Amino acid sequence: MRLNRFAVAAVLAAAALALTACDPEGSSSGASGSAPAATASAGGSAPAAAPAASGSPKPAASGGKSTAGGTAGGTTGKATAPAADCTAGAAGRTVVEATENAYLTHVWMRAKSTEFVCGPDVPGDGYWEAQGDPRLYSFDNDVKTYLLDENLKAKSVDLFVFMKAQEACLKQARPAAPYRCFGNQYEVKVGAQNKVLSITQLYRP
Question: Which spans does this entry mark as compositional bias, Gly residues (predicted)?
C-alpha cells in the first residue's frame, strides 16, 4: 500500500507540472497564482510568489518631479515678463520717495528718485521703486501741494499743512485728519536748481 501512495503522489506532481508548462505566456500571472496552491497542498514551499510582489512598484514619482520643475520654470518666466501696458501710465512722470524734510526756517526735503517696475510682486501691474541716494529739493515760492484725503482724492493744501503731514508720515505718525500716510511717495514737477513746482501725494498700499 505504501508503494501505491508514493506512486499516486508522483503522478499528481507530474500532472501539475504538465499543466503549468502548457499554459500560454499571456496567462503567466494566473499560473503563478494557481501554482502556490498546488504546491501548498503537496507540502511544497510557498515563498515562490514573493519576487513578483517586490518587483511591482514603478518609479513614477521621479517623472512627476521633473514635469513639475518644468512647469515652475515656465510660470516664473511669465511672471517676470512685463505686461504690454504695464508702463503706459508711468511714461513722462517723475516720482520721488521722501526721506526727510524741514519747514520751520527753510523749506526743503530730501528724496530718492524712483523707477517704475512691472511685476512679479504685483502681477499684471507695477509700482515705483526707490533708487540711489536721497537728493535735496527746495520749493518754489508758488509751489502747488496736494495731499490725499480719506477717499484717496487729491486736495490742494497750504505748503505748511503739506510739510507737516509729510513730516508725520516720515516719523511713522498719523497726520491731522482727513489726511493719511501712503508710503511717502510723491509725483513732482521740478524746475531749475531742483526746485519743486508741484508735488502730489501718491497712494501706495
Answer: 66-76
Query: What value does the mean pLDDT of the chain take?
Result: 71
Q: What is the pTM of this model?
A: 0.58
Show the cell assigned to 101.
Answer: 524734510
Query: Which residues on adjacent β-strands are paired with residue 110?
Result: 100, 136
Strands (E), 15-125: 95-102, 108-118
Average pLDDT for residues 20-38, to the nearest whole number?
Answer: 44
Per-residue pLDDT, 174: 94
C-alpha cell at 22: 502548457
The model's pLDDT over 42-95, given as tens digits with 9 standing for 90+, comes to: 444 444 433 333 333 333 333 332 222 233 333 333 334 444 567 777 889 999
What distance in Å separates the CA atoms of residue 160 and residue 146, rounded to the nearest whole number?
11
Interacting residues of 145 by C-beta distance below 8 A, sequence separation 6+: 156, 157, 158, 159, 161, 162, 198, 199, 200
SS3 content of the chain, % helix, strand, coil (to 5): 40, 30, 30
Dmax (CA) for the chain in angstroms is 131
User: Cell 511717495 sits at which residue?
Assistant: 185
Cβ neighbors of 176 (< 8 A, separation 6 or more) are: 161, 164, 165, 168
